[in-house]
Specification:
alpha/beta, 8-stranded mixed β-sheet, disordered N terminus
């Protein structure tokens, strides 16, 4: 779910829809057709010059190789192990997701998923089971490498990966951003409201079993859930439902005004909530 800009196909679709509804003029500029990667990792020094980017590589037992980055500086307060959303890559989007953590005075570790971006599969078909196994191995690898507090943070698809990890490791803290309850709810939100009466979603057995509520029953640590008010991919209602299902007091929910699916961490109130959460304010 990498929607940092309005792409050319979306612009053309918008023009087509508007042309059917009324007489409308749509203006284009050459800049809209020029490919851009405004959040690419190589731009990080321009927004966080104190940080260094170290390339990481981890070889799994089955031969797959996870590659990622360790974004760090001396004197950081904590480290974030960040699981990205589907379609988000270290090289294309690293600065976009890391900037907020540098403003929190945190180091960041993140890996591309198996067979995606920098990372390689072992040549065999893989599914969620392998991604879960990779996440556990990468957590153990990072935990041995990093001293002090390490927060596991998952965004969108990555929030499901992070929740499964939290159910199997005694992590320091969990942050779930742009999240929801189940894979079924997540898939249903991908269907526009006007198409819902005509679309039936069938999930395979593996996807049907994906449930953040069930995963968090096995996690006793602190959890912060962040969702944008304007998020249509993972609506705030499903995030609130997830939050309500956690039967503990060491939890916090932050619903961010004027934020959608991709930009909640860019808001000052979100960063304040993050700091307060880590200071034990639930």
């Amino acid at each position: 779910m990498n929607k940092y800009s309005l792409t050319t196909p979306r612009l053309l679709l918008l023009a087509s829809v508007l042309s059917l509804s009324a007489c409308t003029t749509v203006n284009y500029t050459a800049q809209q057709f020029v490919p851009k990667d405004p959040g690419k990792i190589s731009l990080l020094p321009s927004v966080a010059p104190a940080y260094q980017v170290e390339n990481l590589e981890y070889k799994h037992a089955d031969g797959a190789i996870s590659r990622g980055v360790y974004i760090r500086k001396p004197g950081a307060d904590f480290t974030v192990l960040y699981f990205m959303g589907s379609g988000v890559r270290v090289d294309a989007n690293g600065t976009s997701f890391a900037k907020a953590f540098t403003e929190l005075n945190a180091n960041v570790i993140s890996f591309d998923y198996r067979g995606f971006g920098r990372s390689d599969s072992n040549g065999k078909q893989h599914s969620l089971i392998e991604l879960e196994s990779d996440a556990l191995a990468l957590y153990d690898y990072a935990r041995k490498m990093v001293p002090g507090r390490m927060v596991v943070h998952g965004h969108s698809f990555g929030s499901f990966v992070a929740a499964r990890l939290a159910s199997k490791r005694a992590i320091d803290a969990l942050v779930m951003e742009g999240t929801g309850t189940t894979a079924l709810a997540y898939s249903d939100n991908m269907v526009p409201w006007f198409a819902k009466p005509f679309v039936k979603i069938n999930l395979d057995e593996e996807l049907t079993a994906v449930d953040n509520r069930a995963a968090l029953r096995n996690y006793a640590g602190p959890v912060l859930i962040i969702n944008g008010v304007n998020d249509v991919q993972t609506p705030a209602a499903t995030a609130r439902e997830l939050f309500a299902s956690i039967p503990r007091s060491n939890k916090r929910y932050e619903e961010v005004a004027n934020a959608g699916h991709m930009n909640a961490l860019s808001k000052p109130e979100t960063l304040k909530a993050y700091r307060d959460f880590l200071n034990g304010q639930f």
